[in-house]
């Protein structure tokens, strides 16, 4: 039994097509397993694990809080990248939106721009109560003490009215000055001297008479 050459050629073409199709399926399936960004977000931290990227190009990754701080500055990596220490989230009293941006160096179709929500940690809300500064209000009600200076006006008026009193004593000063010395002093002194001389003359004449009688 002989098989025609044409049938053999047809079978070979079919087999070759099958091999090519299988190889193409394998090649097309390979990229699906590559460029795998895995990341998780909790109430307090973010973990990141990027695997199966091309090490022949430069890839970049950035993690940040939307409308907030940057958790991981733009970092370049090759085949893989992972956070050795989880990225700490800032304290928050409401959900935070965390954004992951991965730029693949071999093709933009492998790039990633995703967001996840970070919930509020349990027990973190009571920390807000100390911020209420209620004691600051009572001191504002004590300024009426500043109205007390009003009575000070009346003592100043009485003091000014009593001040002219010492001026009256100045009018008596000339009287005291006149008693210090007088123009009649030499006259009195001369009269006293004359009296002394007269008395001395009388005593001398009396003694002279007594001696004459003896």
Secondary structure topology:
Layout: H1 5-33, E1 36-41, E2 45-51, E3 59-65, E4 70-77, E5 81-82, E6 87-88, E7 96-103, E8 112-118, H2 153-162, H3 173-178, H4 185-213
Antiparallel strand pairs: 1-2, 2-5, 2-6, 3-4, 3-7, 7-8
Structure keywords:
35% helix, four-stranded antiparallel sheet, 22% strand, rod-shaped, 4 helices, 214 residues, alpha+beta, 8 strands
Concise summary:
The chain has 4 helices and 8 strands; from the N terminus they run H-E-E-E-E-E-E-E-E-H-H-H. It is α+β, with helices and mostly antiparallel strands and 214 residues long. The strands form 2 sheets. Strands 1, 2, 5 and 6 form a 4-stranded antiparallel sheet that branches. It has a 4-stranded antiparallel sheet with strand order 4-3-7-8, with no helix packed on it.
Task: Describe this entry's structure for a reader.
This protein is rod-shaped. By secondary structure, it is of the alpha+beta class. A hairpin with a 4-residue loop joins strand 3 and strand 4. The strands form two sheets. Strands 1, 2, 5 and 6 form a four-stranded antiparallel β-sheet that branches. A four-stranded antiparallel β-sheet has the order 4-3-7-8, with no helix packed on it. Residues 16-32 and 169-174 have low confidence and may be disordered. The chain has four helices and eight strands; from the N terminus they run H-E-E-E-E-E-E-E-E-H-H-H. The protein has helices at 5-33, 153-162, 173-178, 185-213, and strands spanning 36-41, 45-51, 59-65, 70-77, 81-82, 87-88, 96-103, 112-118.
């Amino acid at each position: 039994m002989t098989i025609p050459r044409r049938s053999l050629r047809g079978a070979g073409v079919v087999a070759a097509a099958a091999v090519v199709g299988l190889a193409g399926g394998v090649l097309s399936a390979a990229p699906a397993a590559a460029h795998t960004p895995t990341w998780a977000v909790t109430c307090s931290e973010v973990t990141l694990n990027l695997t199966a990227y091309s090490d022949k190009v430069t890839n970049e990754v950035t993690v940040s809080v939307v409308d907030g701080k940057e958790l991981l500055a733009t970092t370049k990596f090759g085949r893989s990248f992972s956070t050795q220490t989880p990225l700490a989230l800032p304290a928050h009293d409401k959900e935070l939106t965390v954004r992951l941006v991965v730029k693949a160096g071999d093709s933009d179709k492998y790039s990633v721009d995703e967001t996840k929500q970070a919930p509020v940690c349990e027990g973190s809300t009571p920390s807000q109560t100390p911020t209420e500064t209620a004691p600051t209000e009572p001191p504002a009600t004590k300024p009426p003490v500043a109205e007390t200076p009003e009575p000070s006006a009346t003592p100043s008026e009485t003091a000014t009215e009593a001040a002219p009193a010492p001026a009256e004593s100045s009018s008596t000063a000339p009287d005291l000055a006149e008693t210090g010395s007088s123009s009649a002093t030499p006259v009195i002194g001369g009269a006293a001297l004359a009296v002394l001389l007269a008395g001395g003359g009388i005593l001398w004449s009396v003694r002279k008479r007594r001696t004459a009688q003896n």
